[in-house]
Specification:
Structural class: mainly alpha
Distance between the termini: 26 Å
Helix content: 40-55%
Low-confidence stretches: none
Radius of gyration: 15 Å
Order of helices and strands: EEEEHHHH
Shape: globular
Strand order of the largest sheet: 1-4
Number of helices: 4
């Protein structure tokens, strides 16, 4: 595994602001030391589930090559890991944040390949 670096921890489109004078990352509550691929896996998870315009999906190959040099199979595995970790977090926190109980239920239906499973929220 690659040496850990400082990662954002929750890289998704809603945490990236772009304007005429630059691009900024916001919401660093999950900042951590982790392998460089962690941020890319979170962004890939976002792109797979919520990227209706296709912009993030189109950007992923360049980010994959230039940002963390991880092959497609590894990125898919780490994205699955990110999905599992987020689902487990919903289950673990459902007593403290009751809305996560319903979120966990939706995600577990998705994992079970339920064709009627609703689209869960990106956390």
């Amino acid at each position: 595994m690659a040496d850990p670096v400082v990662v954002h921890g929750d890289l998704q489109a809603t945490n990236i602001l772009a304007g005429h004078d630059g691009t900024w990352l916001i919401d660093f509550e999950l900042i951590a030391l982790a392998p460089r691929w962690w941020d890319l896996a979170k962004l890939a998870m976002f792109a797979e589930r919520f990227d209706t315009a296709g912009w993030w999906s189109a950007a992923l190959p360049t980010l994959q090559e230039e940002y963390c040099q991880v092959d497609t199979a590894a990125l898919e595995a780490w994205t699955t890991y990110a999905l599992i970790a987020t689902t487990a977090g919903c289950i673990a926190k459902r007593d403290v944040r009751p809305e996560l109980g319903a979120e966990a239920h939706d995600r577990l239906r998705w994992w079970a390949s339920d064709p009627a499973a609703p689209t869960w929220r990106f956390l």
